[in-house]
Amino acid sequence: MTTTVTVERLLGGASVLKSRPRSSLDWVTVIRRGLPAAVLESLTGNLGLPQAELGAVLGIPERTLARRKKEGTLSPEESAKLVRLARVVRRAAEVFETRDAALDWLRRPNRALGGEPPLRFLDTEIGAESVTDLLGRIEHGVFS
Q1: CA–CA separation, 140 vs 111, rounded Å?
Q2: In this structure, what are the phi and psi dihedrals at residue 73, rounded to the nearest 5 degrees?
Q3: What is the C-alpha to C-alpha distance for residues 51 and 34, in angstroms, rounded to an integer?
Q4: Averaged pLDDT score across all residues of the chain
Q5: What is the pLDDT of residues 36-65, one digit of tens each?
Q6: How crowded is residue 138: how many other Cβ atoms within 10 Å of its Cβ?
Q7: Which of 36, 60, 77, 120 is a Cys-bridge partner for 116, taking CB atoms 3.0 to 4.6 Å apart?
Q8: What is the SS3 assignment for 36?
Q9: φ and ψ at 116, to 5 degrees?
Q10: Which pTM value belongs to this model?
């Protein structure tokens, strides 16, 4: 039995988010307000990434993440990066049918991405779009 991967669950659920975003507009509000720093623990646990690697994937220095934990809230820009990562993981889980298969694919070098792992592209919006486009091609049987 496979549990559905959702952005909300990856980020710790309603108890961590302090809300239940249901639409894109709800997520905009959550991001603008800044995610609670507790989502860092949830995301590192759900993805099996140490905080240092999470920071590297997102282009956020580890010291900044440590400071945000003390402050309790992430900036809107940092929040947007975390939600973007969770959205790509959710999409990969849809394509590969499990979170573990999705994470494995995200970590492996990919020829269509110049031999780099897809995770290395998630620090920018254009990179994340490239990964999402590649997932769409895989889903429809168009291999690059």
Answers
A1: 18
A2: -140, 140
A3: 18
A4: 93
A5: 999 999 999 999 999 999 999 999 999 999
A6: 17
A7: 120
A8: strand
A9: -95, 150
A10: 0.92
